[in-house]
């Protein structure tokens, strides 16, 4: 049995200079602490600098970049950046997903080292958002792309792709109302010849009665040399919008089971 505590340490914007500090942490009784802290600073004329450091046994600089924003339609970022592919990167903050931690099964299909040196261009126009990255690792070039569409007020769609000679593709969707949220993602890796699918849904039992108490269910399936399945059920309680307290029970196809307890905070 494994007990985990996840905490979003702080996220705040200070003054007109638009300086943002944010981070989150995870404390695992069996494997120790996992912490991440980042900072962004907006300068004049659309310039931004930012960085992010992660501790997971050792300290790793996961992001360090300079960005120039030309308008809503385009911004350019150069440095060490994060690929916009997979649930672990799209919904990476604890308050952005139901479970205490993101599914380990996805690690088998995502590219190795999803934080790399390179350049990215991103923007939004007429309900469409895009990002294109050119990245380098061990003198090998990779291209990453993502397209998002707010199809309706409730439905958000996305598709991502990665290519360095081998291809990884991912598609995701989120449907959200004031009391119901459902998300799904499917990712396939040509290199590992493996696919991962994750589906989760939650319903606010206390809708309109003060606070939020969301009951949720999540299913993960990894198809590689053999198939593994994992089912997670639990609750998310939000006494106020920026605090999320989590409890869950997980059972896998290989008789793996465990409890998780977590808390997420954002300011």
Describe the model.
The structure is a single chain. The protein has 267 residues and is mostly beta strands. 1% of the residues lie in helices and 67% in strands. It has 1 helix and 17 strands. The chain has a 17-stranded antiparallel β-sheet, with no helix packed on it. Residues 1-16 have low confidence and may be disordered.
Span of the ends, CA to CA: 32 Å
| DSSP strand content | over 45%
User: Rg, please?
Assistant: 19 Å
Structural class: mainly beta
- Low-pLDDT stretches: 1-16
Mean pLDDT: 83
Helices and strands, in N-to-C order? Answer: EEEEEEHEEEEEEEEEEE
Largest sheet: 17 strands, antiparallel
**What's the total helix number?**
1
Q: Please count the beta strands (DSSP E, at least 2 residues each).
A: 17
Shape: globular
- Percentage of residues assigned to helices: under 10%
Describe the structure using short key phrases.
17-stranded antiparallel sheet; mainly beta; 17 strands; 267 residues; 1 helix; disordered N terminus
């Amino acid at each position: 049995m494994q007990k985990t505590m996840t905490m979003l340490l702080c996220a705040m914007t200070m003054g007109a200079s638009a300086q943002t500090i944010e981070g989150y942490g995870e404390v695992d009784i069996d494997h120790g602490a996992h912490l991440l802290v980042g900072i962004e600073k907006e300068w004049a004329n659309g310039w931004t600098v930012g960085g992010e450091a992660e501790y997971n046994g050792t300290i790793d600089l996961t992001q360090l970049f300079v960005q120039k924003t030309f308008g809503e339609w385009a911004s350019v970022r150069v440095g060490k950046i994060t690929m916009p592919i997979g649930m672990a990167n799209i919904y990476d903050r604890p308050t952005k997903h139901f479970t205490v931690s993101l599914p380990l099964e996805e690690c088998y299909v995502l590219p190795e080292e999803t934080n790399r040196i390179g350049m990215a261009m991103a923007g939004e126009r007429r309900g469409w958002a895009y990002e294109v990255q050119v990245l380098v690792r061990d003198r090998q070039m990779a291209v990453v792309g993502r397209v998002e569409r707010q199809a309706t007020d409730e439905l958000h769609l996305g598709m991502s792709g990665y290519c360095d000679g081998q291809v990884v593709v991912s598609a995701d969707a989120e449907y959200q109302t004031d009391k119901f949220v459902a998300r799904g993602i499917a990712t396939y890796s040509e290199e590992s010849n493996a696919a991962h699918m994750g589906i989760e849904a939650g319903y606010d039992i206390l809708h309109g009665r003060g606070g939020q108490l969301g009951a949720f269910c999540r299913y993960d399936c990894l198809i590689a040399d053999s198939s593994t399945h994992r089912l997670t059920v639990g609750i998310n309680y939000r006494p106020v919008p920026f605090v999320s307290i989590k409890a869950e029970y997980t059972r896998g196809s290989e008789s793996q089971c465990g409890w998780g307890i977590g808390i997420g905070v954002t300011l």
